[in-house]
């Protein structure tokens, strides 16, 4: 306990240097601008910034990326409130009450509430990160190939189930496609090259960064440029700094949303958007004034913004302890950590325990910077909102080319970016979620290696996959998740519960 | 140029990753249902192809590896899984498919939005495959940015502004971006450029 506090203190002190603070300031401002600009998402920002931070010291590079990530998720709420367009997918729930508040002449109040609730959400997530991550890392040391196989499969399945907006089938398909991409190149058990078709560049497999730059960069540019119209910015005439009472009268909502966001963040591959929507739905259900939701409810806005920011901090829990990305942006962070020689996973707490607390310190500094800039630079951010996307997107594409080329300095990676951009755009247009695809690419090797290694250990006997307690538990959850995504099964199960609840009063 | 704000977040393109809590009305879009049917067939074909290549993949018998650890094992399972999911999607789409869905899909494919997407793609392909590597990176980028801005603010704009103003802005941003990226990445952050 005290060791943790000492490490946390050291983590904060580690970044309280001129270089650290300078990186916090510019990266947070850049993240805020990325979040504010419609068409630029947090994942895209982090993926593009990996290149820029390539030559930086590892701790400063991750600090920069973390500030961009958190800044973008928070910054998107500005666009949601003023334009009724979520700046990033995470802020979609914030449009429901944020924009009506702005139309009522309370744009400043809405921005102030969004800012403070984002900070509080991050703090709740940080609290759980500091508590749960060391425990989970210790527990994960007991995991073997069997558990890691199921965990990898669980990540892809649950991500597919929860992010498939049209049907879970599309989420599963996206996940399988991601896993297939990961099968390309040399496999790690027997060093055999799969699906390379004689192309030497494919031997090393598809790198995550160019794929992400394509799927989140070029695909987003195509989606943004497809639209012709531009929304109108709501005017800001009232105060931005909220009164303490305006925030803390909803303390229950804040804590509840923070916990929901944390829970969603811990689930691999389920991003900030799910955290925001789940918190919003729970707040509406528990609210004394649910009729105000969707018409400018301050509670609704607070719930949405607390929920999505809590996900950011909590997504670091599986990311750091199990190397299972808690969100799409966290997948890029894993790739960035690998590039900088930091190996996330159960061994992190043994090999590099201070790093976990450095991440906590990074999040603390980033959220503090968000709070300060969010409450003070309102006019500047409104100016950013009015940047024409025709001028912006062209420059962003140039950055996509630089971002995909720079890490391994191969034009092949630029072509990978192009292919993923085009395919990603088509899939997005057809409502296939991107998160399971990304998770599949990240977890494919883990899944493949651990399945075959587990089978090799038992001479082909799959029994331990089903009989070891943790393996069996994860297996049951996966089966239940898949079963519940079948409409006939889920309807029947729900009706069983409803009937059960309906019977209870009759019996009493 | 003004447009009424979207009625719900579902209507914006930013929410493509939105989860189930949003009431999804996409299921009733005939163009998407037909497109789903076509992609489902593509996925079935891909799944079968991956399963076939995995089945025929070298099983490394000469190295005497255990048969349950052959390299093609996981890709084979994935191929089967994709075929299964593709088939389920095809059945779902065929059940929801309505009269006129094909025409609706064609309308989407030949819409003004599709033209804008194709122009962006065309410019991106010419820049990436044609210009980059054949001239200094800053010049290739400046040419791309200039063409992009000029096209989208004149020919492809709903309400084009003054041509002179557009050309001036396009030149300034193109040179600023080209030289700026070259300097910031190449000189300050020491990143190699294409």
From TrEMBL, chain A:
Keywords: Membrane, Transmembrane, Transmembrane helix. Residues 22-439 form the DUF112 domain. The keyword NAD does not apply. The keyword Transmembrane helix applies. It comes from the Bacteria. It holds the Pfam family TctA. InterPro entries: DUF112_TM. The chain crosses the membrane at residues 24-50, 62-87, 107-136, 148-165, 171-192, 322-343, 355-382, 394-427, 470-489. PANTHER family: TRICARBOXYLIC TRANSPORT PROTEIN. This is Tripartite tricarboxylate transporter permease. It comes from Devosia sediminis.
